[in-house]
Amino acid sequence: MKKWLPWIIVAVVVIGIYSWAKGFNNTAVGLKETATKTWGDVESSYQRRNDLIGNLVKTVQGAADFEKNTLTAVIEARAKATATTIDPTNITPDQLAEFNQAQSGLSSALSRLLVTVERYPDIKANQNFLELQSQLEGTENRINVARDRFNGAVEPYNKHIKTFPNSLLAGLFNFSELNYFRAEAGSEKAPDVNFDFK
């Protein structure tokens, strides 16, 4: 029995290490997949907004005297926002900043469009426009919720791979920290609202 004791101890240690590594890996994979799926929800919310903008532009184009520069800015910002994509399994701070900047440009162009529309009573009275405006407001809320959920899904994954002793296996299994979605620089300041009805 004594001659088998070292082998039994080694076997128990190997099985213990294997179980720990397997548990770490499976949990990390599950948490990363959840974060990836929630990033897909963020992109889906942005896509919904992009789809609505096409309808909004067509509705607003119906007003003959509407300012073309504002409309062109929205169309160009939408094209730029849809061209910027991110691989959810490998989100870098630079990619997130570029994506956020493109989406911010679109939000800014949309705000200018909606403020400009205030000068056109025919558009404001259009039921299609009012419905689209309401849909866009709802979509902006969905985008905020989706971003928050993404950050909520990233947190347990990052905690899992950064806590000791899991951090030892994270490098071995090639798990790296995911980046949180952060607000654009300067967004902590309240925007200036100027209603110029000249």
Question: In brief, what are we looking at here?
Answer:
The chain is mainly α and 198 residues long.
Structure description:
There is one protein chain. By secondary structure, the protein is an all-alpha fold. It has one domain (24-172): de novo design (two linked rop proteins) (Up-down Bundle). Helices cover 73% and strands 0% of the residues. It is built from 6 helices and no strands. Helix 2 runs antiparallel to helix 3.
Average pLDDT, rounded to a whole number, is 78
Spatial shape: rod-shaped
**Could you state the order of secondary-structure elements as H and E?**
HHHHHH
The portion of residues forming beta strands comes to under 5%
CATH homologous superfamily - what is it? Answer: LemA-like domain
What is the CATH class name? Mainly Alpha
Number of helices: 6
Number of E-state strands: 0
